[in-house]
User: What shape does this take?
Amino acid sequence: MAGKAVVSLTTGLEDPERVTVAFLVAVGAAEQGRPTLMFLTKEAARLALDGVAIAVACDGCPPLADLVARYAKAGGHYLVCPICFEARALDKQRLIEGAELGGTVPMWQWIGDEGATTFSY
Assistant: This one.
């Protein structure tokens, strides 16, 4: 099995190009068969809500909604910082497929002893 990948994202739609790059990296890992986790913190917590990740960052950039769909199809998983989520009074009922609330302990449990390649945006 290919090694795990973790993409940490702190930025939301205030910087759609950064979000797009993070999703491209995560999609690439997941589509190559790597177990892939996106750890969403700060404003990125909003991206785990249905109907939010729909921007197109630039001419020639893939629509974010398409990347989210590809990530789900490839089995990608999201861990959303519960502190960030609650601080923004977001609705747990709107979490997208593959998303759950969890902080650093569940992230380290997911990584386990084998480690993971990490990217931070």
About this structure: The chain has a mean pLDDT of 96. DSSP finds four helices and five strands in the chain.
